Amino acid sequence: MAYELNGESYDVDEEGYITDISLWSRELADLIAEGEEITMTDEHWEVVNFLREYYEEYQIAPAVRVLTKAIKKTLGPDKGNSGYLYELFPYGPAKQACKIAGLPKPTGCV
Amino acid sequence: MSKIDFQVPAIEEFTETPKIAVDAMAHSRPFIAAPAHQEALGFPGELVEDWHGIAIGKMGELISKYQSLPVFLDSCVKCGACTDKCHYFLGTGDPKNMPVARQDLFRKVYRRYFTFAGKWLPWLVGAEDLTEEVLDDWYNYFHQCSQCRRCSVYCPYGIDTAEISMAAREILDEVGKGQKYSNEIIGKVHKTGNNLGIPERALRSTLDDLEEDIEEDTGVPVKLPLNQKGAEVLLVTPSADFFAEPHVDGLIGYAKVFHAAGISWTLSSYASEAANFAVFIGSYDQMSEITERIRKAAEDLGVKRIIVGECGHAWRVAYNFWNTLVGPFDFLDQSYPIPQHICEFTNDLINSGKLKFDKSRNDHMTLTFHDSCNVARASRMGEVPGGQFEYPRAVIRACCNNFFEMAEDTIGESTYCCGGGGGLLTDDLLELRVKGAKPRIDALQKVRKDHGVTHMAAICAICKAQFSKVMPYYDIPMTTIVSVHQLVSNAIILPGQNQVDSQEVMKDTEID
User: Fold this and answer.
1) Are A51 and A62 in contact (CB under 8 A)?
2) Please, what are the domains in chain B?
3) pLDDT tens per residue across span B178-206
4) Nearest to B271 by CA among B245, B251, B289
5) Which one of B185, B213, B245 has the shortest CB-CB distance to A108?
6) Which of B33, B94, B268, B472 sits CB 3.0–4.6 Å from B37 for a disulfide?
7) Domain containing A19 — which CATH number?
8) Beta-strand (E) ranges in chain A?
9) Which ipTM score applies to this complex?
10) Nearest CA in chain A to B420
């Protein structure tokens, strides 16, 4: 499986996570989001950007609580909860947002 | 990925035995492990050329190594007592999900190659050759068993399908047909110390964040120490407790209990995982390697006790196997249970009057308790028989006013699996997970209706993740599932915490 974008091909695993995370781009994120039936808004980008920054720093996706706290700081207290994140990413903020952000899928009992 | 492409079963007041639906789940199979995931564990990367010879050889090894296995394979009299006891059968109607039929997938091959009658008169005794088709059937249907052992409770001979399913998966790994979800995760534990792959710096940062939150909420500086040498207790807990909800609320609860009891404790970044997925694939070697990390961390940190957090199969492995795998733990303080479950620890503190609660802080909830299969049927807790059922309930009762049990044949040793245990908590098995949760959901829905139950507590990371995922398919809010120590966390009065605060909370709650 692969995503096709501007004549380039991007390999993904069985679940649609890109296998080479260094090839991620905003355009590619839009394409992945489309496959997830999500139209990216500023709020979606806020989450995706935070995930990428956090990953850059710690080499792992942030805990859900860390993510909600960060979103609370930038988007306000009414949006700093996992309910809001589920509205943005119905399949789960951790997995679906990571997929769009080009990060590996969180594994384990999550 | 987010689309539903299957029929969600209708909730029933009492779970009825479904009509037989032949091959209803024949399409359900998890992703096969990639060569890299296989090879990291010493298994062949892909299906080997001589898979037949290797599989039969491995089967022979297993039946001579594990005495229980040939007993289980030989003793079934086809009485049928198990047929309607598996949650996957009840949720799917697929006859191969009847425990006896699942066992027979393995048994027919065993008979063909290892019994006199099966070698000479296979047609007479239901013996069959191991073909690639049979191997595929194994892969599909032994990944539709969560190894919860409910069937074994009702089997007059005590045949344990879980052990047969572990043996089948062990053979599948050996021939190069492993499961991606479990094997990728086991590889991560070897590399990073936990299932999620959280590096030490990220873990410390997450814990710092939690400390900040707790102090903000309570005004008390409760710590979550990491790699603290000389601490009395090493806590090993599922890494989901650092990452997911409602798991993390349980972790906060453990931290508050340690703080309130004044017992020094630490987490370890080297052994930042209680879970041991090797038990799901039946691999003794992998199970030892993962457990060895915990032993080494405990020795290096110089702790006196090891306590295990809310994780079902981890407790099974800890309670039953740690000592055999990497024991004896003679360097620990022998006057405490080795290992000890967090519920037992908290319950002891409650009984000795060392913890104070304001139960009214949980008055916005009406609770029930889901017994997790591995704790309920594969282990015990404390000194008393049935402690594994009683202790978590005692903890809940100590911090909640409103509690109702679900139907008797769905709790205790008869508990239904959440539908995601045994290495099946993966998105590629979502249909199976949703359908397998049905019997539990039926029972939960009944107490929701009859008693106004709002929340269900559990002591297993898999159960918590599974229910938050599948409950919405049944129109039950995902937040219905909570950690037992989350309830503790809500109700506990920390030393130094302003008593007036708790009075105010009470007043607020009453007004609400």
Assistant:
1) yes
2) 35-184 (1.10.1060), 193-404+453-511 (no CATH)
3) 999 999 999 999 999 999 999 999 999 99
4) B289
5) B185
6) B33
7) 1.10.10.370
8) 2-5, 8-11
9) 0.96
10) A109
